[in-house]
């Protein structure tokens, strides 16, 4: 989130990704995923995604036994 905020404040993206050690593609994936979210909302994304994946796995397993 801090990296995205720095970019919004005008820090060149090339400088940000070089300093942090991420690829440009990773930066834009983060931007697409987290832009417009507050910090507390962004913190909820990962647990929600993990719960979603568990439920999908359960549904797949039940489909195999039917």
What features would you describe in this structure?
The structure is a single chain. The longest helix is centred in the C-terminal third of the chain and has 27 residues, at 39-65. 0% of the residues are buried. The protein has four helices and no strands. The protein is elongated, with a radius of gyration of 17 Å. 80% of the residues lie in helices and 0% in strands. The protein is an all-alpha fold. It starts with a helix and ends with a helix. The protein has helices at residues 2-8, 13-20, 24-34, 39-65. The protein folds into two domains: 1-35; 38-66.
Oligomer: single chain
Strand segment tally: 0
Query: Given the helix and strand composition, which structural class is it?
Result: mainly alpha
Distance between the termini: 44 Å
Helix content: over 70%
* Succession of helices and strands: HHHH
Q: Taking Cα atoms only, what radius of gyration do you get, to the nearest Å?
A: 17 Å
Shape: elongated
The count of helical stretches stands at: 4
Summarize model confidence as the mean pLDDT. 81
Beta strand %: under 5%
Which residues form runs of ≥5 with pLDDT under 50?
Answer: none
Major beta sheet summary: none
Please tell me the total number of domains: 2
């Amino acid at each position: 989130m801090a990296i995205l905020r720095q970019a919004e404040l005008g820090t060149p993206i090339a400088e940000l990704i070089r300093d942090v050690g991420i690829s440009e593609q990773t930066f834009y994936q983060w931007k697409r995923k987290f832009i417009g979210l507050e910090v507390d909302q962004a913190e909820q994304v990962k647990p929600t995604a993990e719960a979603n994946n568990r439920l999908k796995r359960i549904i797949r397993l039940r489909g195999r036994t039917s």
